[in-house]
Amino acid sequence: RAFSQRGVAVVAVDPAAGVGWNLFWDDCSDCNSNGIDDAQDILDGTVTDVDNDGIPDECETDCDGDGTPDPLEIYFGEATDWDGDGHPDNCQDDCDGDGYPDDWAIKIGLVQDCDASGVPDTCEADCNGNGLHDSCDIDDGTSTDFNEDGIPDECQCFADIDESGSVDVNDVLLVISQWGLIDGSADLNFDGIVNVTDLLGVLSAWGPCP
Questions:
Q1: Which of 1, 100, 137, 184 has a Cα-to-Cα distance from 162 of 20 to 30 A?
Q2: Distance between CA 144 and CA 18 in Å, rounded?
Q3: What percent of the chain shows pLDDT beyond 90?
Q4: What pTM was estimated for this model as a whole?
Q5: Are 49 and 55 in contact (CB under 8 A)?
Q6: What phi and psi values does residue 107 have, to the nearest 5 degrees?
Q7: pLDDT (tens digit per residue) in 77-130
Q8: Burial per residue of 13-49, b for 16 or more beta-carbon CB atoms within 10 angstroms, e otherwise
């Protein structure tokens, strides 16, 4: 039978069972419910605490459900923890599948996050495939967005006025037929009037739509 100092659990021992059980808990914790304070378990070597955080390894999280507590996987190199947050990287967001948590990859500049969304630009809208979020292309003038729909104009096919899937002579004829018309469907640059600029736009986009 053992008695504690103030602030520590009072423990009694059942000789028949050979197991300690707590009468009063106070500030103690017993995550594995074996009747012995966690700190004492660790001190006695009854349980391991590889990461020295005062919590028995068997009571810690196993985010990937493989049967091995996260701290042990990290300690023995069975899992990586690039951002040092104590959680295996394979349990964190990695939208591009590069093996690094998104937030860490952004923090060290491995990937870009121009819109500060916390998600790598390559995992968001990037219709022109330049590695930057479309909104950033538009904001910095890399891409135009005449109709202000949030999609770079080069990813759309405005010159395909008849929506046939390609820019051809029929689209030229539509520009001519609407010449001088205000806000016509052939106003490719959305300046309010169909004119030579729109005709040149059709000619420059000639062929199948991307």
A1: 137
A2: 77
A3: 24
A4: 0.47
A5: yes
A6: -60, -40
A7: 888 898 888 889 988 999 988 888 999 899 988 888 988 888 998 888 888 888
A8: eeeeeeebebeeeeebebeeebbbbbbbbbeeeebeb
Residues written for the chain: 210
Q: Which residue in this structure is represented by tokens 């707590």?
A: 22
Q: What is the mean pLDDT of residues 183-206?
A: 92
DSSP-assigned states of every residue in 67-91:
SS-HHHHHHTTSS--TT-SSS-GGG
- H-helix or E-strand spanning residue 166: strand 166-167
Buried b (16+ CB within 10 A) or exposed e, 114-133: bbeeebbbbbbebebeeebb
Q: What CA–CA distance (Å, rounded) separates 200 from 198?
A: 5
Per the listing, tokens 């500030």 go with: 27
Q: How many CB atoms lie within 10 A of CB 152?
A: 20
- 26-71 pLDDT tens trace: 456 888 888 898 898 889 888 888 778 888 888 888 888 887 888 8
Decide: 5 and 15 in contact? Cβ < 8 Å.
no
What's at 91, amino acid-wise? C
- What single letter denotes the amino acid at residue 115? D
Q: Strand pairing partners for 10?
A: 24
